[in-house]
């Protein structure tokens, strides 16, 4: 369940926002003044923060700036201040959206969901970009199409890399040469298993410390090949 923090000094608006977000199945914490809101925002594990600007003790701009220095989570200003200068200032501190009071509660929830979905998508892309598969001294970087053994890069052809990645992502499973050809080459094997065998041998020459005694790509006699994770 996603957790949202609302920092709003108007109790009626705070409760309205909380009710609608909880009805949308979010977990919601609230703060009615800036000092507590800033502490909760910095110390809590929230997925999104809703901020008013005019708050007792510490204003929303200050909270937004402090949070943005430490976290990338979405921050939405919900405020009665309509001046363009305030919008520009809020967005300049790193806010993701600016909703002016009075507002439609359903639109408010829709914007919260949209920003959470966008953040999840961007976060997922970042994680994907840095994803790596590690097997002992062997490291495979799928999105970069690079392979390292003991920190030293191993040059592979495109097809060799695709073959290695397929086997590594399915470590422990045994695949026949027909299946490997179909999955990696994208074609029906039609008996063309020699291509697979040649590429397996080339891969072993490049990634195995001792190709004659492979520790990564294992031959399962009568069945095919298996990547040993």
Task: Indicate the topology.
Blueprint: E1 3-7, H1 11-23, E2 27-31, H2 34-43, E3 48-51, H3 60-68, E4 75-79, H4 84-92, E5 97-100, H5 105-129, E6 133-135, E7 138-141, E8 146-149, E9 152-153, H6 158-169, E10 174-175, H7 177-185, H8 194-207, E11 217-220, E12 224-227
Helix pairs in contact: 1-5, 2-3, 6-7, 6-8
Dominant shape: elongated
Low-confidence stretches: none
On the 0 to 100 scale, the average pLDDT is 89
Radius of gyration: 27 Å
Strand order of the largest sheet: 2-1-3-4-5
Which CATH architecture of the largest domain? Answer: 3-Layer(aba) Sandwich
State the CATH superfamily name of the largest domain.
Response regulator
Reported by name, the CATH topology of the largest domain is Rossmann fold
Give the H and E element order.
Answer: EHEHEHEHEHEEEEHEHHEE
Index terms:
elongated, alpha/beta, 229 residues, four-stranded antiparallel beta sheet, five-stranded parallel beta sheet, 2 domains, Arc Repressor Mutant, subunit A, Rossmann fold
Care to give the gist of this entry?
By secondary structure, the protein is of the alpha/beta class. The protein contains eight helices and twelve strands.
Q: What would your notes on this structure say?
A:
This protein has eight helices and twelve strands. Helices cover 44% and strands 20% of the residues. It folds into two domains: 3-128, Response regulator (Rossmann fold); 133-227, Arc Repressor Mutant, subunit A, CATH 1.10.10.10. Helix 1 packs across helix 5. The strands form three sheets. Strands 2-1-3-4-5 form a five-stranded parallel sheet, with helices on both faces. A four-stranded antiparallel sheet has the order 6-7-8-9, covered by helices on one side. The chain has 229 residues and is an alpha/beta fold. It starts with a strand and ends with a strand.
């Amino acid at each position: 369940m996603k957790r949202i923090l609302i920092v709003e000094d108007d109790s009626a608006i705070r409760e309205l926002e909380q009710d609608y977000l909880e009805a949308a199945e979010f977990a919601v914490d609230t703060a009615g003044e800036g000092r507590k809101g800033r502490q909760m925002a910095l110390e809590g594990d929230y997925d999104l923060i809703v901020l008013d600007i005019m708050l007792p003790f510490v204003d929303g701009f200050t909270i937004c700036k402090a949070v943005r220095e430490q976290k990338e989570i979405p921050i939405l200003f919900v405020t009665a201040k309509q001046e363009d200068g305030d919008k520009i200032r809020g967005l300049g501190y790193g806010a993701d959206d600016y909703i002016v009071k009075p507002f439609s509660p359903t639109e408010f929830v829709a914007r919260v969901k949209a920003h959470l979905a966008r953040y999840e998508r961007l976060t997922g892309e970042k994680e994907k970009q840095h994803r790596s598969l590690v097997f002992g001294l062997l490291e495979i970087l799928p999105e970069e199409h690079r392979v390292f053994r003991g920190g030293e890069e191993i040059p592979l052809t495109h097809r060799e890399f695709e073959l290695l990645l397929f086997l590594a992502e399915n470590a422990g499973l045994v695949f026949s040469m027909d299946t490997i050809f179909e999955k990696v080459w994208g074609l029906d094997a039609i008996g063309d298993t020699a291509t697979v065998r040649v590429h397996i041998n080339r891969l072993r020459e490049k990634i195995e410390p001792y190709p004659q005694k492979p520790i990564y790509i294992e031959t399962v006699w009568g069945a095919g090949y298996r990547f040993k994770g």
